[in-house]
Write a structure and sequence with these properties.
The protein is α+β, with helices and mostly antiparallel strands. It has helices spanning 41-48, 52-63, 84-98, 138-144, 153-189, 209-219, 222-237, 249-274, 278-287, 303-309, 311-318, 322-336, 340-344, 346-355, 361-373, 380-401, and strands at residues 3-5, 19-21, 25-28, 35-38, 67-70, 75-79, 109-113, 119-123, 129-131, 190-194, 201-205. 55% of the residues lie in helices and 11% in strands.
Length: 402
């Protein structure tokens, strides 16, 4: 079964964990009775954790055509002839409005209907509650046909297992892609000399500076690659220092940018080791490239977005160092204490750094457990971080059970 990432914004991410089947349609009938059958609507709806009747009805509302989903046969029909690309575009709009969290973009949400007949999406990852625009035609249908109440944790685990099976198919494809890239890289790095007389094969590795730089860029992350490339470039450029004034402005700018990057990363490392305060953490974020001249995120929403912009610097500073990860979490905690707006976004910050592999799961959980058991256990930081921690722990326990 061909799979694709849920959400158009994640279409280019080869390692995105949330996937759904590609839409398959079929035109049936002729004349006034022509209809479009979405063949795999049940599978698509299951991946989105939404009733297939919702997606079918949404197509009808948007196209101004009659639509019907048969619960017994699982058949989804929309009157008229509609091509797959058009229906797939409408499905993306449905995902944005009724599936993805408005806060973090995670599709792991649950539809809630309030006492006032309003529709909300509750995110299992960050805890954010999104308010759906009730002017949309589909909202009336959802209120009249609310989703079935959860029968228990077994059903939830069954859905997780089904999701994991689809993820395994995607991971298998990723592994094949990795293997193919390794084979190509191996052929590029190794020269084979074939002696036709005695069939001896001699393997030689290109040890030139250019080949070494190429291997470094392929194997390391973009941040650490810049750091290593800087050291090799400096060795090569030292004899040419006297001619730098006559060189290319772009080359000089690039070298200065790399030097600044290294300096900032080292500053983060030193500050974390010493124990960075809230004011120091704030000053550090403002000093990084890309920061606004007027940091409005300090007094309103935007702290999570600001941290996400600087994740490459933070990743380089805490790479493969558990102690530094805990120190970074404590620095974020100190910054959030006096800032009510930052406290509300703590779950979004944790998820952004977790998704970017800046923070590991066990360190986030350890930091949270120390916090709720410490002297500052009454802080609202732990209350706002709790939904994300529970999501982490539930995913871990189910993976162990599998």
């Amino acid at each position: 079964m061909a799979l694709q990432n849920i959400g158009a914004s994640n279409s280019d991410d080869a390692f995105y964990r949330y996937k759904m089947p590609r839409m398959i349609t079929k035109i049936e009938g002729r004349g006034n009775g022509i209809k479009t059958n979405i063949v795999n609507m049940v599978d698509i709806a299951k991946a989105l954790a939404r009733p297939p009747s919702y997606t079918t009805k949404y197509f009808g509302c948007e196209l101004g055509a009659q639509s019907k989903f048969d619960e017994k046969t699982g058949t989804s029909l929309v009157n008229g002839a509609h091509d797959t690309a058009k229906l797939a575009g409408l499905l993306e709009n449905f995902i944005k409005k009724y599936v993805q969290c408005y806060g973090c973009g995670n599709p792991e949400t649950e539809i809630l209907i309030t006492k006032n007949q309003m529709i909300q999406l509750k995110c299992a990852a960050c805890g954010f509650v999104s308010d759906v625009d009730m002017r949309d035609k589909l909202t009336t249908f959802i209120v009249k046909n609310p989703p079935e109440a959860k029968k228990g944790s077994k059903d939830k685990k069954a859905m997780r297992r089904a999701e994991k099976e689809r993820l395994k198919e995607g991971e298998a494809a990723d592994e094949e892609l990795k293997k193919l890239r390794k084979d190509v890289k191996k052929k590029a790095d190794v020269k084979v000399e074939d002696d036709e007389e005695d069939d001896d094969i001699e393997w030689q590795t290109d040890t030139s500076l250019k080949a070494a730089q190429k291997r470094i860029q392929e194997q390391l992350t973009s941040v650490t690659a810049d750091m290593v490339m800087l050291s090799t470039n400096e060795k090569e450029k030292k004899p040419k220092a006297t001619n730098r004034a006559n060189g290319s402005p772009k080359a000089a700018s690039s070298e200065n940018g790399k030097a600044t990057h290294m300096k900032l990363v080292e500053e983060v490392k030193e500050n974390l080791k010493k124990g960075i305060s809230a004011n120091q953490f704030q000053s550090f974020l403002q000093s990084l490239p890309g920061s606004a001249q007027e940091p409005s995120w300090m007094v309103s929403k935007g702290f999570a977005k600001e941290v996400t912009k600087k994740k490459s610097y933070l990743a380089a500073a805490v790479a493969q160092d558990e102690d530094s990860q805990l120190l970074l979490l404590r620095a974020i905690e100190e910054f959030c204490k006096p800032n009510p707006y930052a406290v509300k976004e703590i779950a979004l910050v944790l998820k952004a750094l977790y998704d970017a592999d800046v923070l590991e799961e066990e360190n986030i959980v350890l930091w949270y457990q120390e916090g709720v058991a410490g002297t500052n256990k009454g802080s609202s930081i732990w209350k706002n971080a709790k939904p994300f921690i529970e999501w982490l722990q539930s995913a871990e326990s189910e993976s162990e059970e599998e």
